[in-house]
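task queued by scheduler; priority normal; single chain, no ligands, no partner chains; default sampling; output format set to structure tokens
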Amino acid sequence: MRLATMTAVASLATSAICASAPAQESTPAPFIGAWQVTWAGENHRRQARLVLTQSGGTWKTFEPDITKTKRDKCRGLEVPVSLESVASNKLVLKLNYAATLTGCHDSKIVLIRVDDKTITGKRHGTDLTVSRE
């Protein structure tokens, strides 16, 4: 009898913990896939590749000036992307640079879905053009 009571209490506690935990957000289907991202850089147009999966993804900036990559080790890294906020037509993403290389700083991107092939966005106040590959 005592074992049955302990098992029941443990089961109830596990159920309560699971019920109170927030559901893991996932990327809405229209955002999932590979995207080319462009924006106006300091002296030239910048480009990155964003791959979004149901649970996150990756980001890789392409640096045309190799000397900047040598000076700033955070440039040109492929970094994991995590979901900060999810809505049907809007995502807030975190680019996890700090988890990839010590001394790098994370960055946030806000993406808004325009249509099936185009997303607009902002990163540090800079407009991003996002097109499906």
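post-processing summary
- The CA atoms of residues 26 and 124 lie 24 Å apart.
- The chain has three helices and eight strands.
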